[in-house]
Amino acid sequence: xxxxxxxYLGDRExxxxxxxxxxxxLDHKLYDAAKWIPADFKLRDGMEKAVLRDAALGILPxxxxxxxxxxxxxxxxxxxxxxxxRNASERLRRRYLSKRAFETGQVFSYRxxxxxxxxxxxxxxxxxxxxxxRDSNKMLMYMLQTHMLHAMFVDRTSWRRQDxxxxxxxxxxxxxxxxxxxxxxxxxGRP
Length: 191
Prior knowledge:
Elements: H1 3-16, H2 28-34, H3 39-42, H4 50-55, H5 62-65, H6 86-96, H7 99-105, H8 110-120, H9 126-153, H10 157-167, H11 181-188
């Protein structure tokens, strides 16, 4: 992705949540060298970033160097909207997972939210159903967080007012009529 997109999507989100994050390597010389490395060197025995991990051998601790990639989610603990966290999340769910929030944000489908809500209520019998329930709760959390950000930074009326004031053109005085040479000479005091 181009740097401006990463900065926009990365830096803004990070700063909005007081987070420190890193952008991918974007140095064109590094990219030019890496693009010629065969794919089986980069992905070795199911391990992603094998070349980078090899380069970090002896530099990073082994558990960090060999750690699996993990997705980023703003919450640190798993959330169970319809289980242990039901009461704590009820107000947030009513506001940010309502049909109105989906119509306003226009990012996700309300029907997908309803389906994810049903799956998030499933009993956690066995590892498969437990994973379906957990993933459905994650999906709901992403939707909730997106709608929260939309309410804070897009739909907030005070932001819109500031934007409108910044883009309004200042009132300009009507243009003065061009004056003749004799008129200008008289004003300056010349004959």
